[in-house]
Design a protein that fits this description.
This protein has 408 residues and is an alpha+beta fold. It has two domains: 271 residues, Aminopeptidase, CATH 3.40.630; 103 residues, Elongation Factor Tu (Ef-tu), domain 3 (Beta Barrel). 29% of the residues lie in helices and 25% in strands. It has ten helices and 17 strands. The strands form three sheets. It has an eight-stranded mixed beta sheet with strand order 1-2-12-3-13-16-14-15, sandwiched between helices. Strands 4-5-8-7-6-9 form a six-stranded antiparallel beta barrel. A three-stranded antiparallel beta sheet has the order 10-11-17. Helix 1 packs across helix 5, helix 5 packs across helix 9 and helix 7 packs across helix 9. The chain is globular, with a radius of gyration of 23 Å. It starts with 15 loop residues before the first helix and ends in an 11-residue tail after the last helix. The model has no long low-confidence stretch (mean pLDDT 96).
Length: 408
């Protein structure tokens, strides 16, 4: 937030300490299904350190998600859940060839974006199941060399198939497969890209792997830090780190279904459509990195909550952009709908470039504006109804009425 005498935080460069904190969150090795490195290793200790004594941390049996709860047990209080997801898209070992090639799947990556990149493989100790080891020093390959490629691949007319991808660990000599197997590597082992974020050439930009969705988790953590210092009086905030988003939003669905918040906000990356190559003919919404965070309308999103966020941002001159979706937001904002309970949902995001690659690119203005926008929104929700806070009746009775509109 800003005063008349100070420059707003989103117009300043992100402080180095804050950037390093964001980098630490994003760097946590948390492939789908094994997210505890981020949720338990990085964010749970942070939550324990900052939380007031009355706040509580919830944990779950079937996933490594966590929730920092500002008013535990107070189910009569209107609740707002804001969700970032800790899981990273990953490759998985499919099989091991006799020559030592470790064949992998491509999950949600384009196969052509993976070639030559260094990765980390996590494998269990075969003598101690459940104990993981890290294997580095390998790259993802498919063709080996241009000399072995088909003519269409040389010209670019033909791409790379997911079935062609393998992890190269430089094995050679006799019994390569046996050497790999002795390491404990087996089908299903996760592999993630090995590139921490770093500052970009252009001011206030940064790039690297897994902005999706370490950025959302960073935003949740920063909001928790803000309101741990100045707790809200009336509304209950559930600062949530979810899992399994990249394979269907299953972690957020389980957590939201258990806690049933009145308002649900999915915090996730979005696309910089203006800079996306080849999209001109598709007439995409003009969404641009560096011009503010995004608010998504359409799908199951609440027009009322969207309008409250917009009003809070306009009152504080916080930059935001509007986006749209059709049937599905593609984010954890869908968690209530998927879990089958009533909640007013919205999706907010940060326009980035090169999503699901090793060089995802973002701008600090967008994430700082998103944090400020949600801070302003939460403060307004807490002040509604003459400082009694937003009520469930407000949510029920403020659906837009298009039969009562004025004619231009």
């Amino acid at each position: 937030m800003a005063t008349k005498k100070t420059k707003p935080v989103w117009e300043k460069s992100m402080p180095e300490k804050q950037f390093q904190w964001m980098k630490e969150i994003i760097a946590a090795p948390s492939p789908i299904g094994l997210e505890a490195a981020m949720s338990y290793g990085v964010l749970k200790p942070f939550f324990e350190d900052i939380k007031p004594k009355s706040w509580a941390i919830h944990q779950f049996k079937g996933n490594a998600g966590i929730v920092l709860d500002s008013h535990p047990g107070e189910d009569d209080r209107t609740s707002v859940m804001i969700i970032g997801h800790a899981d990273k898209i990953r490759l998985q070992v499919r099989s091991i060839g006799s020559d030592g090639k470790i064949w992998v799947n491509s999950d949600s990556f384009l196969p052509c974006t993976l070639i030559g990149h260094e990765v980390k493989l996590f494998s269990q100790d075969p003598k101690k199941p459940g104990k993981y080891r890290l294997i580095q020093g390998g790259t993802i390959e498919a063709l080996g060399a241009i000399h072995f490629s088909e003519p269409g691949q040389r010209t670019g007319d033909k791409g790379i198939k997911p079935t062609q991808l393998y992890l190269e660990l430089q094995m050679h000599g006799e019994k390569c497969k046996e050497k790999i197997e002795k390491l404990g590597i087996r089908a299903g082992d996760p592999i993630i890209l090995d590139r921490p974020i770093r500052k970009g050439f252009t001011k206030d930009t940064y790039y690297g792997a897994y902005l999706d969705n370490g950025l959302g988790c960073f935003m949740v953590a920063e909001l928790a830090r803000i309101f741990a210092k100045k707790p809200l009086k009336n509304i209950r905030i559930l600062y949530t780190i979810a899992t399994h988003e990249e394979i269907g939003r299953f972690g957020a669905t389980a957590i939201a279904g258990e806690m049933k918040p009145d308002i649900l906000i999915g915090a996730d990356v979005n696309h910089d459509y203006d800079a996306a190559p080849g999209l001109g003919a598709k007439k995409m919404n003009p969404l641009t990195m560096g011009k503010g965070f995004s608010i998504t309308g359409g799908s199951i999103t609440s027009d009322y909550i969207s309008s409250l966020i917009e009003k809070a941002c306009q009152a504080n001159e916080i930059p935001y952009q509007m986006d749209m979706s059709g049937r599905d937001t593609g984010t954890d904002a869908m968690a209530a709908a998927l879990a089958g309970f009533d909640s007013a949902a919205i999706s907010v995001g940060f326009p980035i470039r090169n999503m699901h690659t090793i060089s995802e690119t973002g701008h600090t203005l967008d994430i700082l504006a998103a944090i400020a926008g949600m801070e302003a929104t939460f403060l307004e929700l807490d002040k509604m109804n003459r400082n009694k806070g937003i009520s469930r009746d407000d949510l029920k009775n403020n659906h837009a009425r298009l039969d009562n509109v004025s004619t231009l």
